[in-house]
Amino acid sequence: MSQNLPKGLIENLEPNEKVLYAVKKRIGLELPKWLVVTDRRIIAFDEKILGRYEFKAIPYEKLEKVSYHGGAIGAEFTIEVEGGEKIRLTWLDKEEGRKAINAIYEAVKAIAIEPPTIEKKKGVIGEDIAVIKPKEVVMRSKQIVASIPTTSKSDVAELLKQLKELRDRGVITEEEYKEKVRKLLEKI
């Protein structure tokens, strides 16, 4: 990565998490805001003075839609998360933003059973690109036990491993994990 990422951002990366792309706010008097695309999630990082920051990480499993709007002089991202939350990042470099939306598309495609939808609209001055994660992927993490029939012990072992990974990544809560494990074990 050619840009040096802030120390607070680096400290919050998970072990072995790979940064695929990072873009920072183009103009402003304050320290820059960052949009970071990793192999596991999208991170919105707002660097502040005196080592302070705001950090928001959205795992791809909880992502619903990412919209990019490239205007005449800058770009804007809107990240929509399960539950209706929206995160906006403005005044990003237009060309860097285009590369970031492509990195998001490729990262979501890598985890999706079905490829994500991509919508593009080119205007005279700007363009809009949206990456929409398939609903199946949104449901997959929530209903992994119910949606996959289990008949063998190796199937159960694999599902238990997947559930643990989902819990460890913060996609499901500890309570959801225990409930799904209980239901899964009832099936054998």
Written account of the structure:
The chain has helices spanning 7-11, 94-111, 135-142, 144-147, 153-168, 174-186, and strands at 19-24, 33-38, 41-47, 53-59, 63-70, 75-81, 86-92, 117-122, 127-132. The chain is of the alpha+beta class and 188 residues long. The chain folds into two domains: 7-132, PH-domain like; 153-186. It has a five-stranded antiparallel sheet with strand order 7-6-5-9-8, with helices on one face. Helix 5 runs antiparallel to helix 6 (174-186). The longest helix is centred in the middle third of the chain and has 18 residues, at 94-111. The N and C termini lie far apart (47 Å).
